[in-house]
């Protein structure tokens, strides 16, 4: 699919989303952007490549809810001629034959197969598997009296649990985690890592075809949606990486909130009621997937008074939409009990049913087991020393050092 469209020059006053000035932006950068530009902002990506940044709650809903106007296939983009070979955002925009970028009937078919295969997961068994995995990870550091909860726990639990759901042998999980992290890091390791992951998924599909089991991969193989092994391989990879990375960041960001915010301190002393509230609060305030490329305009249209041209790229600002003053009064607190955030996306390409529910079982169980095992856990640094990784796309901590009494962790 190629689209010959006259691409006009970048909009005047477009905001650079890269470079020194952006890296050193002040805290109110995004608020100012909203005040000065409104809900749809003309922006420049690395290399001054133009795009639209959609930050209004209503506008993100509109774009994601109208696939006939704003479609997913990145080959529709009208600025491919500006993209250098080594562009750092290529991993987010390069086309691949996965469910993420499929459209229309093909997307519906694959998305329905994914939902069916995930829906067959027994939620109680999933919770039990998370408990066992959390216990085993905690056993490794419980006697030390200190640990970095990101590298020792939050980053490791979801891939271990999900690998089992998909039938990936335990012995292959460390390589899988390393390679998924390389791909997400989009540096020179990304391409070979992606190739190794594809081979791993191909081998997984072959072994499940020979010996089907009670796992998501076997169920997808049985589904008539997949005639081509390549399609299945790509979708397995999307499910495993789109699944485990944000779930791990969700766990880490929730543990941080519970350790730094006194509204949740009671939970650390044994109550459990607010784990679900903390998880929900994080989806409003510090959602793991902050921004996403995106959608591509199918026709010329207007969006919040902006003239959008065929093939224009729209970046979806999930976090910015959640922070839209139109839905969130500045006093905060709206998140507790209110699940209308856009952190799982929206519309046909939103996080497919029942993935958000499964992710929540994993994240909630992980946090609960940790609080149970290390009830006197506290931050080992000042709250304002905790560092967020400087990424526009994801919200995750570099580390979350805690200390606790080793005696409080007898192992179970
Ligand atoms: C069990 C864990 C998960 C699985 C298996 C999973 C799987 C997927 C898949 C397959 C898609 C692509 C849907 C499509 O294009 O048709 C997707 C989309 C998405 N997921 Fe998830 N996911 C999981 C957890 C999460 C978590 C924890 C978050 C963030 C809190 C998240 C946020 C999103 C978002 C924002 C999209 C939409 C992207 C877009 O609209 O372009 N997911 N997920």
UniProtKB/TrEMBL annotation:
Any GO molecular function: monooxygenase activity
InterPro entries xrefs: Cyt_P450_B, Cyt_P450_sf
Domain of life: Bacteria
Family label: Belongs to the cytochrome P450 family.
PANTHER family listed in its UniProt record: CYTOCHROME P450 YJIB-RELATED (PTHR46696:SF1), P450, PUTATIVE (EUROFUNG)-RELATED (PTHR46696)
Protein name: Cytochrome P450
Native source organism of the sequence: Actinomadura namibiensis
């Amino acid at each position: 699919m190629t689209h010959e469209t006259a691409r006009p020059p970048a909009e005047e006053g477009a905001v650079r989303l890269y470079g020194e000035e952006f890296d050193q932006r002040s805290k109110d950068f995004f608020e100012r952007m909203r005040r000065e530009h409104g809900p749809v902002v003309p922006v420049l990506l690395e290399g001054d490549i133009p795009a639209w940044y959609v930050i209004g709650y209503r506008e993100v809903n509109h774009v994601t809810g109208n696939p006939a106007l704003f479609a997913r296939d990145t080959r529709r983009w009208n600025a491919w001629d500006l993209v250098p070979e080594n562009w750092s955002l290529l991993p987010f925009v390069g086309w691949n034959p996965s469910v993420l970028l499929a459209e229309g009937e093909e997307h519906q078919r694959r998305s329905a197969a994914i939902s069916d295969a995930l829906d067959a997961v027994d939620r109680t068994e999933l919770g039990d598997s998370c408990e066992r995995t959390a216990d085993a990870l905690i056993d490794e550091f419980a006697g030390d009296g200190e640990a970095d909860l990101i590298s020792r726990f939050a980053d490791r639990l979801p891939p271990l649990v999900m690998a089992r759901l998909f039938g990936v042998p335990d012995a292959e999980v460390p390589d899988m985690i390393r390679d998924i992290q390389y791909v997400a890091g989009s540096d020179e390791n990304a391409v070979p890592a992606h190739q190794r992951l594809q081979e791993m998924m191909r081998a997984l599909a072959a072994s499940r075809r020979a010996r089907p089991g009670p796992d998501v991969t076997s169920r997808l193989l049985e589904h008539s949606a997949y005639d081509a092994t390549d399609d299945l391989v790509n979708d397995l990879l999307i499910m495993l990486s789109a699944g485990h990375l944000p779930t791990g960041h969700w766990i880490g960001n929730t543990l941080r909130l519970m350790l730094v915010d006194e509204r949740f301190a009671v939970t650390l002393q044994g109550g459990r009621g607010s784990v679900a509230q903390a998880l929900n609060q994080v989806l409003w305030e510090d959602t793991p997937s902050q921004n996403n490329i995106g959608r591509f305009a199918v026709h010329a249209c207007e969006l919040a008074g902006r003239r959008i041209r065929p093939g224009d790229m729209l970046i979806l600002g999930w976090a910015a939409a959640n922070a839209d003053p139109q839905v969130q009064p500045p006093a905060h607190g709206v998140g507790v009990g209110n699940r209308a955030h856009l952190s799982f996306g929206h519309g046909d390409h939103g996080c497919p049913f029942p993935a958000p529910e499964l992710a929540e079982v994993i994240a909630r169980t992980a946090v609960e087991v940790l609080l149970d095992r290390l009830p006197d856990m506290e931050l080992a640094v000042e709250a304002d020393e905790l560092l967020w990784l400087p990424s526009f796309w994801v919200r995750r901590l570099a580390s979350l050092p805690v200390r606790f009494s080793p005696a409080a962790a007898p192992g179970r």
